[in-house]
Amino acid sequence: MNYSDVLANARQCIGKYCKACPVCNGVACKNQIPGPGAKGVGDTAIRNYNKWADIRVNMDTLCENGTPDTHMELFGRRFKYPFFAGPVGAVNLHYSDVYTDMTYNDVLVRGCAESGIAAFTGDGTNPDVMTMATKAIGNADGCGVPTIKPWNIDTIKDKMAQAKASGCFAVAMDVDAAGLPFLKNMTPPAGSKSVAELAEIVKLAECPFIVKGVMTVKGALKAKEAGAAAIVVSNHGGRVLDQCPATAEVLPEIAAALKGTGVKVLADGGIRTGVDVFKALALGADGVLICRPFVTAVYGGGAEGVKCYIDKLAGELADTMQMCGAHSIEEITPDMVRV
User: Fold this and answer.
1) Which ranges of the sequence are coiled-coil (predicted)?
2) Which domain, by its residues, includes 232?
3) Is 5 a member of any domain?
4) What is the CATH number of the domain that holds 124?
5) Within 10 A of 78 (CB to CB), how many other CB atoms are there?
6) For 228-253, what is each residue's pLDDT tens digit?
7) 8 within a domain of the structure (yes/no)
8) Hey, which residues does 171 pair with through a beta bridge?
9) Binding residue per annotation — 328?
10) What is the mean pLDDT of the chain?
11) Would you call 94 a catalytic residue per the annotation?
12) 212 is in an annotated binding site
């Protein structure tokens, strides 16, 4: 199976919203929700993709020859590549009922772990989503990151207990999910968190805590103040706020603000290829998350489809590193890209 096969297979079963496009750039789905589209006019998802495409890589082959080392470490774990599968929820609503959140996470977590990376898993109003996601992570020796929505504190405590029981190496919260309709008008209240509230949640985790959904230096420093071990520069794929800047536009200033603090910086939003991964690392990210294409990979080939997409990303990243003179992830520097 190759990636073209994965896309062709996915088109047969992925539902009426996602088109399993050869280039997942947000144009065909645009503002279709349900579906993988973005909020409002739908341009934020498109902008995410386009801004990575605007960045060029600087070729330099006047250097020592050798095979690039793509390994990276995060919170004491060594991963084969500096990219992870991002969390997705309600796949049967946004894509098709070929998979449920439970079966999707089981395939994704297993496929990623077998290929040397980790998957972030999603959350939802159905409590079985977190139950099955954390079960899948437990079966993968803790190689996964449960991502908890910013519920009220009692709900968070219940889901955090499940996360810890899975043996996961880190826990995340997509704080920008405060913009999702099903979190609004809940009793007790759910949604945005103050620094004090976030600090309380960080303590509950008792393991490295990742704050996903940071788009400003101010937000990054708040996450650091609350005790986050890492952030994800993310606008939720454009799904929670219309007219956001692209993640590529804000990543450099956020990474610069957190440099030397010990807080890891991850990024997502429109990253689709190994070349994009390279660009994000050059702009200051320690690693990246990729979400929508992994959905296509699961629908198009199950665990084999996941491996196929990971292999594609890995080959593109290694080739770009070699052609730009980087022999390891640590050697990727800002001067290797042209913004």
Assistant:
1) none
2) 72-324
3) no
4) 3.20.20.70
5) 9
6) 999 999 999 999 999 999 999 999 99
7) no
8) 209
9) no
10) 96
11) no
12) yes
